[in-house]
From TrEMBL:
Residues 209-281 form the Histidine biosynthesis HisG C-terminal domain. Residues 50-204 form the ATP phosphoribosyltransferase catalytic domain. GO terms for biological process: L-histidine biosynthetic process. This is ATP phosphoribosyltransferase. SUPFAM superfamilies: GlnB-like (SSF54913), Periplasmic binding protein-like II (SSF53850). Its cofactor is Mg(2+). GO terms for cellular component: cytoplasm. One of its GO terms (molecular function) is ATP phosphoribosyltransferase activity. It is found in: Cytoplasm. Keywords: Amino-acid biosynthesis, ATP-binding, Cytoplasm, Glycosyltransferase, Histidine biosynthesis, Magnesium, Metal-binding, Nucleotide-binding, Transferase. It catalyses: 1-(5-phospho-beta-D-ribosyl)-ATP + diphosphate = 5-phospho-alpha-D-ribose 1-diphosphate + ATP. Belongs to the ATP phosphoribosyltransferase family. Long subfamily. It comes from Phnomibacter ginsenosidimutans.
Length: 284
């Protein structure tokens, strides 16, 4: 028995999806233009597909699970379940208008024409805001639409904003924040759920490790308690004596978000030789 996973064949989700599987200890080799591959050391069969088709394939059980952006997932409205947010391919679905337009709020869109590849999500946004506007659906190069007279505004994915900028547009309203998610079919067998659960366990260990760093430092013993108080560790920090008397080596795990703030405070309390090391897997 193998679990079948659908991932994007090529594009913005492909590399991070393959890397996530690899970080989970799962080797997938897809030769040039191969649309199917088997993992060598985990009961997983991989299908390489257009991302737009992934929700449908998972809903139809052609694939048991899939990796897809929330933007595509919610646009397609297929009956699948989100298992886990994956933390990559972060972007937002946003409204763009000409950079010199006087945009005062969503009501700006009243009576306007909007070009987008996301008609379902845009229609919902317009309805929620009681806006009457025409949606012009196009499948790509959406940012060019206002410049060639196809629409007054656009709704498309934005991350750095450089595509909008280069097309003389500015970002206004955010309709949806998106990242890659793992989805599953709603009716998997017990056996497949068991494989999925061990895959998700590995994914969570990888994700947790990515958000944390292993930290080592030398602390003067007379300030050890203050320094330890700043370092939560997984249980509590490890403290080992240094060869030089009066000093200890302290080992701990730090969340990336707290990182710079705590480093400053550690230095102020006399910590020296601070090393910060990436963690590969983290199981709590
Ligand atoms: N600029 C971006 N920054 C971060 N993530 C993005 C960005 N653009 C798209 N994404 C995410 O990556 C997904 C895939 O984007 P991509 O551009 O590869 O799609 P595509 O051209 O529709 O690919 P396909 O050929 O598979 O249909 C998007 O649905 C979105 O979730
Ligand atoms: O805000 P930015 O960082 O400029 O990113 C936004 C752009 O990225 C995506 O397109 P992509 O580059 O994936 O090309 P595509 O339209 O061919 O899929 C998206 O459709 C935007 O056009
Ligand atoms: Mg696509």
């Amino acid at each position: 028995m193998k679990l079948k996973i659908a991932i994007q064949k090529s594009g913005r989700l492909y590399e991070d999806s393959i890397k996530l599987l690899k970080d989970c200890g799962i080797d997938v080799r897809n030769g040039m233009n191969k649309l199917k591959a088997e993992a060598e050391n985990f009961p997983l069969e991989v299908f390489f597909l257009r991302d737009d088709d992934i929700p449908q394939y998972v809903a139809d059980k052609v694939a048991d699970i899939g990796i897809v952006g929330e933007n595509v997932l919610y646009e397609k409205q297929k009956a699948v379940t989100v298992v886990e947010k994956l933390g990559f391919s972060k972007c937002r679905l946003a409204v763009g208008v000409g950079k010199d337009e006087n945009y005062t709020g969503a009501q700006y869109l009243q009576g306007k024409t909007i070009a987008t590849s996301y008609p379902v999500l845009v229609r919902k946004f317009l309805d929620d805001n009681n806006i009457n506007a025409e949606i012009h659906e196009i499948s790509g190069s959406v940012e060019i639409a206002p410049g060639i007279g196809l629409s007054d505004a656009i709704v498309d994915l934005v991350s750095s904003g450089s595509t909008l900028f280069m097309n003389g547009l500015k970002e206004t309203e955010t309709i949806l924040k998106s990242e890659a998610v793992l989805v599953r079919n709603n009716e998997l067998s017990e056996e497949k759920l068991a494989i999925l659960s061990s895959l998700v366990f590995r994914m969570q260990a990888v994700k947790k490790a990515k958000n944390n760093k292993y930290i080592l430092l030398n602390a003067p013993n007379d300030r050890l308690q203050e320094i330890i108080a700043l370092l939560p560790g997984m249980k509590s920090p490890t403290v080992l004596p240094l060869a030089e008397s009066g000093w200890s080596s302290v080992h701990s795990v730090l969340n990336e978000n707290d990182f710079w703030n705590i480093i400053e405070q550690l230095k102020e309390r006399g910590a020296q030789g601070i090393l910060v090391i990436p963690i590969e897997k983290m199981i709590v």
